[in-house]
Design a protein that fits this description.
Number of helices: 15
CATH topology of the largest domain: 2-enoyl-CoA Hydratase, Chain A, domain 1
Helix content: 40-55%
CATH superfamily of the largest domain: 2-enoyl-CoA Hydratase, Chain A, domain 1
Distance between the termini: 55 Å
Number of domains: 2
Strand content: 15-25%
Largest sheet: 8 strands, mixed
CATH class of the largest domain: Alpha Beta
Order of helices and strands: HHHHEEEHHEHHEHEEHHHEHHH
Structural class: alpha/beta
Length: 318
């Protein structure tokens, strides 16, 4: 059964009526085809209208939707012959970050993603997509492995942030994230990052400091969650919608600010309504972004990344 967000209630009511009509067992007694067509058209227009004017907070809810395709599913759809690689070779394997080698439309690649899980069991297994130091060290190991074998790196980011527990801090969380960012910036191969859901804080940047940063239309990318920002500034998490507006966390705002490179369009109603179409769009965007990078030298790739991220935040003076 489809899960509806609070602001989707008008669409939910219409689609519920459509389903009721379709369940009528004796259609001969009542010609329902015209009514179903009318309601379907009305529902589609309502959905289009809603998604054409989503607020930053509504986009946050869409980005967190339980049925939105997660990294593991995206990798399975886009990467052929995928071979998972595990462990950081120092402490443990972290389920929040998955990665391995495979082929993207014929090109050998290293694919890495943050995985949230889709139900209680998988969310616990993947720690809700919040990686611990061993997760970032695994990602760094895989990036270095990709560099040695000349494999382009594709990352898929969907995390509310790094795990904030005391054990993560005790094992060097900040250092692990910093080293992850360093590994992205120093990679001698092309790195294309895609924000597919939430891109939260340093936990996201550790996988997203790439040559090209793509972002799904209704994903979010920010230094802190709206709730966290509201708790700090107003001491009230209920002010999260106001914080989301002020933080400029949407793909549209970030594209204008030059913090991402391209926005990947989602199916009408969000990626959770048509995951297959959304994943195809991600693949098409990567297929456009990757080829121009393949012919560049390691020095050129590193220089481009350095210039790209140093330029962020500069103010125009003339």
């Amino acid at each position: 059964m489809r899960q509806y967000l609070e602001f989707e209630k008008p669409v939910a009511e219409l689609e519920s009526k459509i389903e009721e009509l379709r369940r009528i067992t004796s259609p001969g007694e009542l010609n329902i085809a015209d009514e179903v067509a009318r309601l379907t058209d009305k529902s589609d227009k309502q959905l289009k209208s809603l998604y054409a004017k989503l607020s930053p907070w509504q986009k946050t809810l869409v980005a967190r939707h339980d049925e939105r395709p997660k990294a593991k599913r995206v990798i399975a759809a886009l990467i052929d012959d995928f071979l998972p690689l595990a462990g950081d070779r120092a402490f443990a394997d972290d389920g929040a970050i998955i990665g391995g080698v495979g082929r993207f439309r014929g090109t050998p690649v290293m694919a890495i993603g943050t995985e949230k899980g889709f139900d209680t069991e998988t969310r616990i297994k993947h720690n809700f997509g919040m990686a611990k130091p061993e997760g970032y060290r695994k990602a760094r190991r895989l990036m270095e492995l990709a560099g040695r074998f000349g494999l382009p790196i594709l990352t898929f980011v969907d995390t509310s942030g790094a795990f904030p527990g005391i054990e993560a801090e005790a094992r060097g969380q900040a250092e692990a994230i910093a080293r992850g960012i360093e590994a992205c910036l120093n990679a001698p191969v092309p790195l294309v990052a895609t924000i597919i859901g939430e891109g939260g804080s340093g936990g996201a940047i550790a996988l997203a400091a790439g040559n090209t940063v793509l972002m799904l239309e209704h994903a979010i990318y920010s230094v802190i969650s709206p709730e966290g920002c509201a708790s700090i500034l107003w001491r009230d998490a209920a002010q999260a919608p106001l914080a989301a507006e002020a933080m400029r966390i949407t793909a549209q705002d970030l594209k204008k600010l030059g913090l991402i490179d391209e926005i990947v369009p989602e199916p009408m109603g969000g990626a959770h309504r048509d995951a297959e179409a959304a994943m195809t769009a991600i693949g098409d965007a990567i297929a456009l972004a990757l080829p121009p990078l393949l012919g560049l030298s390691a020095e050129a790739l590193r220089a481009r990344r350095r210039e790209k991220f140093l330029a962020m935040g500069k103010l125009g003076l003339g």
